[in-house]
Amino acid sequence: MPDHEDSKPESFMEKITEKIHGHKDDSSSSSDSDDDSKISAIKSKVFRLFGREKPVHNVFGGGKPADVLLWKDKKVSGGLLGGVTLIWFLFEVLEYHFLTLVCHSIILTLAIFFLWSNASTFINKSPPKIPHVVIPEKPLMQIVSALRIEINRGFAVIRDIASGKDLKKFLSVIAGLWFVSIIGSCYNFLTLIYIIFVVLFSVPVIYDKYEDKIDPLAEKAWIEIKKQYAVLDKKVLSKIPRSMKEIKDKKKA
């Protein structure tokens, strides 16, 4: 009997302690969820370059192209960059001509396979398996179709600019093309393509690694650019009429 009476207060106290601990656990879990929501809200307010809301990997479309640009697959990325560097070195440094390089490569390949096929009968080894290369129709047509859509879109943009509807857009495009022509006069086309390729394989991976340090600096630069643009817009751009029709209307007035 006394043992039974002692077990009652003990079980009662155990229930009280369990309720207290359960309440603490619930409050701690709710506080943790509140902290997580606050952290996510703060992260969403952080300035990101180009106003992106997704990780850098998703910005580049994800999949294999993003893996290559961000050096997730180091063998493929290094192989592509090394191959492009070799091509640039042959054409620009050694001054190799494209047609000469193609012909010499085909001659070397044909000679290797021809000699290997004939020598295999004397050394009792199997001849080389020359791959049967066939260009599939469906992917080729998809590429051509996508290229056609982009070309037509470019023609539509050029037509819209040349129609004289927006003078600001016309002047901005002329200024952009003039800037590109200045860069083109400093470098030849192949060197310019190689520089773009190197930038694509270096800048994204650096930004992906140090984005928390780069974004604050980019935010300061973007604020300063907006200030300077506001001054330029107030003093110059706002005074430029949008079209020739607007100029005629002002003259009539």
UniProtKB/TrEMBL annotation:
| InterPro entries according to UniProt | Reticulon, Reticulon-like
Has keyword Transmembrane helix? yes
Where does this protein chiefly localize? endoplasmic reticulum
Q: Which UniProt keywords apply?
A: Endoplasmic reticulum, Membrane, Transmembrane, Transmembrane helix
Where in the cell does this protein reside? Endoplasmic reticulum membrane
Q: Which residues cross the membrane?
A: 76-91, 97-116, 189-207
Q: Name one GO cellular component term.
A: endoplasmic reticulum membrane
Q: Where is the Reticulon domain positioned along the sequence?
A: 65-253
The chain's coiled-coil residues are none
Q: Name one GO biological process term.
A: response to bacterium
Q: Please give the PANTHER family that the UniProt record associates with this protein.
A: RETICULON (PTHR10994), RETICULON-LIKE PROTEIN (PTHR10994:SF190)
Q: What is this protein called?
A: Reticulon-like protein
- Gene source species: Cynara cardunculus var. scolymus
